[in-house]
Amino acid sequence: MKTSRHSAFTLIELMVVIAIIAILAGLILSAAGYVQKKGARSRAEAEIAALGTALENYKADYGDYPSNIVSGSLSLITNLMPGNGSKIYYEFKTNSTNATGFLDPFGNNYNYSYPGSVSRGGTNFYDLWSTAGGTPSSSENTWIKNW
């Protein structure tokens, strides 16, 4: 009598393959999160550099940096991109601003202070920074800043 055997995967083999796929998916997702954070940090650094250039151009025209009478980074928007037909120093995207200021890639406001509070040489300087997704009380070492 002949018996025919069909080849098939065993339950153990299927479980091993599923486990390997799950491990690879986890590695890819964690790498994607890292790349996304790195990209947001690079964008914030570029925006701070561009804002610094816009502030220098503003100072060249008016002799001083904009004051931060308005809280947050709202003074940057009102001074660097005025709505009254004056010279525009920085073009803020409409989805990158809110009622309290200019948003960084992490969804928090950029912070602007003039005169700056960081003790450096000279008297005429400003501070511009992002908390890089952290809280204002988080370590300044992780912040993205112009100083």
Structure, described:
- It is a single chain.
- With 147 residues, the protein is mostly helical.
- 40% of the residues lie in helices and 9% in strands.
- It has a single domain (39-145), classed as Glycoprotein, Type 4 Pilin, CATH 3.30.700.
- The mean pLDDT is 81.
- Strands 3-4-5 form a three-stranded antiparallel β-sheet, with helices on one face. The protein has a two-stranded antiparallel ribbon with strand order 1-2.
- The termini are far apart.
- 20% of the residues are buried.
Task: Output the keywords.
2 helices; 5 strands; Glycoprotein, Type 4 Pilin; 9% strand; mainly alpha; two-stranded antiparallel ribbon; 147 residues
Order of the strands making up the biggest sheet = 3-4-5
For the secondary structure, the number of strands is 5
Overall shape: elongated
What's the architecture, going by CATH? 2-Layer Sandwich
Overall average residue pLDDT: 81
The first-to-last residue Cα distance is 87 Å
User: Could you tell me the radius of gyration in angstroms?
Assistant: 26 Å
Order of helices and strands: HHEEEEE
The amount of beta strand, in percent, is 5-15%
CATH topology: Glycoprotein, Type 4 Pilin
How many domains comprise the coordinates? 1
State the helicity in percent bands: 40-55%
Helix vs. strand class: mainly alpha
